[in-house]
């Protein structure tokens, strides 16, 4: 599907990738100094620590905060843009087909979305959720992947409703997929998205930076 709306989304995704790349670079500065976003930069006597580069750490922290805000904003723009792309697609196809099957737009491997409340077709899976994202830490792998609080998990890698028994399955998959992409399908309101998350060590505990809770 071509058109101004799709071109705009693709440009936004490229900008998102640049922001994520710079966030990773700034996180490396913190890792090299063995500090996170909240660690004190003064010693017990109140003097600047001499074991870290204070200027670089302060600059990196400031840039990360700014970039995280930029990332949040651009993710919202991308989501709105995807909605426009799908609206145009369904409007264009309505006159030539009576097929009510849900259509989805693939945008550079970023997201797969259905806007009519019906999920895209995936043989062997269903659209029942087995868990929910209860919290997402800013700047985390989960945040970078586009996961939001209250997203309902339909699939997490090979785990779905048909084979889910407990969250240890998800934990096991995460622990054995460090640095490797995991495909995730979530329901967000009436939208269904396919996202890619890469578990990794970052500036906070955990490999994802989110809390997943079993759906009651």
Automatic annotation (TrEMBL):
GO term, biological process aspect, one: proteasome regulatory particle assembly
InterPro entries: Nas2_N, PDZ, PDZ_sf, PSMD9
Biased composition range(s): Polar residues: 115-124
GO cellular component, one term: nucleus
Statement: the UniProt record of this protein carries the keyword Chaperone: yes
Keywords recorded for this protein, A-Z: Chaperone
Location of the PDZ domain: 87-190
SUPFAM superfamilies (UniProt xref): PDZ domain-like
Region feature Disordered, mapped onto this chain: 92-124
Domain of life assignment: Eukaryota
Family named by the database record: Belongs to the proteasome subunit p27 family.
Protein name: 26S proteasome non-ATPase regulatory subunit 9
Organism: Pararge aegeria aegeria
């Amino acid at each position: 599907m071509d058109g101004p709306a799709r071109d705009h989304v693709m440009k936004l995704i490229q900008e998102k990738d640049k922001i994520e790349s710079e966030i990773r670079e700034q996180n490396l500065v913190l890792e090299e100094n063995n500090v996170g976003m909240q660690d004190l930069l003064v010693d017990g006597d109140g003097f600047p620590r001499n074991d870290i580069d204070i200027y670089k750490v302060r600059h990196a922290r400031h840039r990360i905060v700014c970039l995280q805000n930029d990332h949040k904003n651009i993710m919202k723009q991308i989501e709105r843009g995807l909605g426009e792309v799908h609206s145009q697609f369904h409007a264009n196809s309505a006159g030539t087909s009576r097929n009510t099957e849900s259509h989805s737009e693939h945008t550079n491997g970023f997201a797969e979305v259905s806007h009519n409340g019906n999920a895209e077709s995936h043989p062997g899976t269903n659209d029942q959720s087995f868990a929910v994202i209860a919290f997402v830490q800013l700047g985390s792998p989960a945040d970078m992947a586009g996961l939001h609080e209250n997203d309902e998990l339909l699939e997490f890698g090979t785990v779905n409703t048909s084979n889910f028994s407990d969250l240890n399955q998800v934990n096991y998959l995460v622990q054995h997929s460090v640095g490797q992409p995991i495909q995730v399908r979530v329901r967000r309101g009436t939208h269904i998205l396919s996202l890619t998350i890469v578990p990794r060590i970052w500036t906070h505990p955990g490999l994802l930076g989110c809390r997943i809770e079993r759906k009651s």
